[in-house]
Amino acid sequence: MVQKLSPEARAQFFSDHPEWKEAEGKDAAQTTLQFKDFNEAWGFMSRVALYADKHDHHPEWFNVYNRVEVTLTTHDADGLSERDVAMAEFLDSLRS
Ligand code: HBI
């Protein structure tokens, strides 16, 4: 059973990852990524999809043209877990 981040670890995550903000009304992290065009955004989403499939951890996301909005949480932990931290760092590594 994956554990929810402690309050301290959660605060540390948001401090270390300024692109991510607390979601409204739920224990989740949100960010928006902007790409050159839809082609680049789709390439990003394709890479994230492969990560999600490999790690059995899936984003909630919305895409319009070159913008991708992502929300991460761990349903099994009813909040943010290390899986979300790892996935956020992977997504940050793909920012243009
Ligand atoms: N994705 N973001 C996220 N959070 C989860 O808890 C999760 C998931 N993908 C699959 C998954 N859990 C499975 O382990 C089942 O719990 C659905």
Automatic annotation (TrEMBL):
Ranges annotated as biased composition (Basic and acidic residues): 16-26
Keyword check for Lyase: yes
Reactions this protein catalyses: (4aS,6R)-4a-hydroxy-L-erythro-5,6,7,8-tetrahydrobiopterin = (6R)-L-erythro-6,7-dihydrobiopterin + H2O
UniProt family annotation: Belongs to the pterin-4-alpha-carbinolamine dehydratase family.
Name of the protein this chain belongs to: Putative pterin-4-alpha-carbinolamine dehydratase
InterPro entries for this protein: PCD_sf (IPR036428), Pterin_deHydtase (IPR001533)
Keyword terms: Lyase
EC number: 4.2.1.96
HAMAP family listed in its UniProt record: Pterin_4_alpha
EC primary class: lyase
Gene3D superfamilies, sorted: Transcriptional coactivator/pterin dehydratase
GO molecular function: 4-alpha-hydroxytetrahydrobiopterin dehydratase activity
Pfam family name, one: Pterin_4a
Region span, Disordered: 1-26
Keyword Transcription regulation: no
